[in-house]
Write a structure and sequence with these properties.
The protein has about 210 residues and is mostly helical. The chain contains 5 helices and 2 strands. Strand 1 (about 100-105) and strand 2 form a beta hairpin. The chain is globular and about 50 Å long. It starts with a helix and ends in a 6-residue tail after the last helix.
């Protein structure tokens, strides 16, 4: 009986051991399978766009080809016109330009202050010369060269006139020195000659474009 029981018990122990081994093997297989699954399938988070990639951060949008609106030039030109006009008129009054009768004996009430001819002539010609130099196509090199030189001359005369006007007005001088008066008196005649010459050159280039050189 005892050997039989021991034998039976031994078989039972061996059987229980075998069952335990099978359960241990199953647990090991499950763990190995889970480990392989975790290694083969990593968890990937949401993609982050990088510069130069497919995200909006890497997209280069073309700049607008529309030129800027020139409306600020109106404000700039208005301010400059007021300052330049007042300087020329003040200089004209310091150099003998004043109110005159245009038609004495015919229309005595028709009067004008001749100081206004200075800003009208010099600044208008400066704008015309700049237009011919920089903003007009189809003109010859000779015409553009004359327009460039005369435009720079006109701007230089205008700047000098503004400086002279303020230098004499600030300390309370009421009459300009005679060299200044002589120079200012010659300005309208000089501008008339420059404008006539430039207009002649422009007309020649427009009428006979084949003769441009």
């Amino acid at each position: 009986m005892l050997p039989g029981l021991l034998g039976h018990g031994g078989r039972l122990e061996r059987g229980e051991r075998t069952a335990d081994d099978e359960r241990g093997t199953d647990d090991t297989d499950v763990a190995d399978h889970s480990h392989r699954h975790d290694t083969a399938t990593p968890i990937v988070g949401p993609a982050t766009p990088t510069p130069g990639g497919s995200g909006d951060a890497g997209v280069t949008r073309p700049a607008s080809s529309r030129p800027p609106r020139p409306w600020p030039l109106l404000l700039i030109g208005l301010g400059a016109a007021v300052a330049v006009w007042s300087g020329w008129v003040g200089l004209g009054q310091l150099t003998g330009f004043g109110v005159v009768q245009l038609l004495p004996g015919v229309w005595d009430d028709l009067r004008i202050n001749t100081a206004v001819v200075l800003p009208l002539s010099v600044e208008a010609y400066g704008g015309y010369a700049l237009r011919c130099w920089l903003g007009t196509t189809g003109l010859s090199a000779r015409t553009r060269r004359f327009a460039r030189r005369s435009a720079i001359t006109s701007l230089t005369i205008g700047a000098g006139a503004q400086a002279a006007s303020h230098l004499m007005t600030a300390p309370g001088i009421h009459t300009a020195p005679w060299p200044v008066t002589v120079l200012v008196a010659c300005i309208p005649v000089l501008v008339l000659g420059l404008a006539s010459a430039l207009a002649r050159l422009v007309t020649a280039d427009t009428t006979h474009p084949d003769n441009q050189h």
